[in-house]
Amino acid sequence: MTTAEASAARPRWERRKQARPSELVAAALALFVEKGYAGTRLEDVAARAGVSKGTLYLYFANKEELFKAVVRENIVRNIAQAQQMVSAYEGDTGALLAHLMREWWRRIGDTPASGIPKLVVSESGNFPQIARFYFDEVIDPVHDYAELMQTLFWSIGTWQLSRMVSTTWPPVSARMRVMW
Prior knowledge:
By secondary structure, the protein is mainly α. It has one domain: Tetracycline Repressor, domain 2. It has helices spanning 3-9, 12-39, 42-49, 53-59, 63-88, 93-109, 115-123, 128-139, 143-156, 158-168, 170-179. It is elongated and about 50 Å long. Residues 173-180 have low confidence and may be disordered.
């Protein structure tokens, strides 16, 4: 029996049960970015995911645990994949940097996940525990890679980087001009 046949043979509610955590995380991401941490209610997350509030509590003990799952799935997982790629990469440094930037844009920058850092900064005064979590899970682990990226930026040269980004990636180029 193939995987598809095995999946089709199981009752619908059983198949969906396996997908629920990711459905809840996706709904939570949308609401956290839209309403902020304080404004997001677990009832609303459950409703957007199409489950009861009780079902949400089967997977996540509270809003903070749900937020942690959102960050881990949308940010931490992508950082870990990028770190693995950098560790295994043997090609041209400029090509690596261009690839990392395109992947960052595709996986984070052009998705609702791009709102997570802004949410953490704006909510950190009222919810220091989410700022501490974000620092421990996102900022601190990438510190060494951030220093590596800074070295890459300077070794390639700002003008080359700007040219490379503007020709391969116009949406980010416009945002980068604002930063520089």
